[in-house]
Write a structure and sequence with these properties.
By secondary structure, this protein is an alpha+beta fold. The chain is 36% helix and 19% strand. The protein folds into two domains: 213 residues, 3-Layer(aba) Sandwich (Beta-lactamase); 140 residues, D-Ala-D-Ala carboxypeptidase C, peptidase S13 (D-tyrosyl-trna(Tyr) Deacylase, Chain: A, 3-Layer(bba) Sandwich), CATH 3.50.80. β16 and β17 form a beta hairpin.
């Protein structure tokens, strides 16, 4: 071998050793950050294309994931309901003639989470225009049986939090602000009162009253009003971490089954867990626990590896289209301007749980999937978001 070739070989070896030493030093630094964080943390980082594990720490331990649960809700919603699914609100009555409805009006709700008071009033106006309504001789009857009426809060939600209210009739943004008070019927009646007030405002006379009841099976459908497509609802759910829409999607999963007439929390859990087993081969109760769709429950338990597996599955099925559902640093959402480089991620936050999971491209143009979860932290020096930022910056710089 010539002297020149030997010299080149020595340079290559020295350079390789230098890089390995630098990476080792860098890993020591990030391990120091992990050790300094006074909480329980888990990390999984994988190459998006090769599936190679690049960095991990407690990747298979169970953690309370907070809103990272919405990634599983996204998966189940897309796979069970489909991007084009729309939440219906259905109107039934037996007879009408120009200007009159000579019967009760029955309204059946299916948990549409997109209806603000303004939207409900718009529905009333559309119905008036469609049937030229001037008078209703019967009652306005709300059928709220699609979702189990008593389960207006999620399982394991803290009773003294300001929780979103869930039911067959949802008013967008409505929360339970008075703990211990049952909102059964009040929720549906609140929706109905807004609807009736708009009828009155438009000059419609109602002879009967507003009440809760079940649709007469002999009645025919007279009008249907649909939400925006699920694709848009899931985008808002993920990017803004909206709990109400996430729980509405979760409760709707069970209604895909023709044998299910009423969605309960139990059969919603079954519907989601069946999907997760089918797509990810994870067994509820043994590998993980998820009992709601939004992540407010501290009963939920998942591992960083499982979160990364869910994201990998979504990417395999939907390609780069899946990025639209994750917040990024340039647009309105939960990570706007959080990093000086592009990241697409879902955040999670509870008083003792924080998480960040999603996609990023490193400084060296490597595409990766990551999940970070921290639990049981305390003290001002243990800011979980700062801890997450340190890990993400390390990954960006070193892979």
């Amino acid at each position: 071998m010539s002297v020149r070739k030997i010299f080149i070989l020595i340079i290559i070896i020295i350079t390789g050793l230098f890089l390995l030493t630098g990476l080792g030093f860098s890993q020591e630094k990030i391990q120091q950050k992990i050790d300094e964080f006074n909480g329980f943390s888990g990390i999984m980082v994988k190459d998006l294309l090769t599936d190679e594990v690049l960095f991990s720490h407690n990747p298979d331990n169970l953690f309370t994931p907070a809103s990272l649960v919405k990634i599983f809700t996204l998966l189940a919603g897309l796979e069970n309901l489909g991007q084009e699914y729309q939440f219906p609100t259905v109107f039934y009555f037996s007879s009408s003639k120009p200007g009159y409805i000579n019967s009760d009006i029955y309204i059946k709700g299916f948990g549409d989470p997109t209806r603000s008071p303004e939207d409900i009033r718009a529905i009333a106006c559309d119905l008036i225009d469609q049937y030229s309504i001037k008078r209703v001789t019967g009652d306005i009857v709300l059928d709220d049986s699609a979702f189990s009426p008593g389960e207006f809060l999620g399982r394991g939600w803290m009773w003294d939090d300001e929780n979103p209210l869930i039911g067959s009739f949802i008013i967008k943004g409505e929360n339970a602000v008075e703990p211990r008070i049952s909102y059964y019927k009040q929720m549906s009646n609140g929706w109905g009162e807004i609807f009736c007030q708009e009828l009155y405002r438009q000059g419609v006379k109602i002879d009967g009253e507003l009440r809760i009841g079940k649709v007469d099976e002999n009645l025919s459908v007279k009008a249907m009003f649909y939400s925006e497509p699920l694709d848009e609802i899931l985008t808002h759910m993920m990017i803004m971490s909206d709990n109400q829409s996430a729980e509405a999607v979760f409760r709707s999963l069970a209604l895909v089954d023709d044998l299910v007439d009423i969605s309960t929390i139990n059969n919603s859990i079954t519907a989601m867990s069946d999907t997760i087993f089918d797509k990810l081969l994870l067994q509820w109760g043994e590998d993980y626990v998820i009992v709601d769709g939004c992540g407010l429950s501290e009963y939920n338990l998942v591992t960083p590896t499982q979160v990364v597996s869910a994201i990998s599955y979504l990417f395999d099925q939907y390609g780069t289209e899946i990025l639209q559902y994750f917040a990024n640093i340039n647009e309105r959402g939960t990570i706007r301007e959080r990093f000086p480089f592009q990241v697409w991620a879902k955040t999670g936050s509870l008083p003792s749980s924080s998480g960040l999971a999603g996609f990023m491209q490193t400084k060296n143009n490597r595409d990766i999937i990551f999940c970070l979860i921290a639990n049981n932290f305390s003290g001002e020096q243990n800011n979980p978001k700062e801890f997450e930022n340190n890990i993400i910056e390390y990954i960006y710089e070193n892979y």
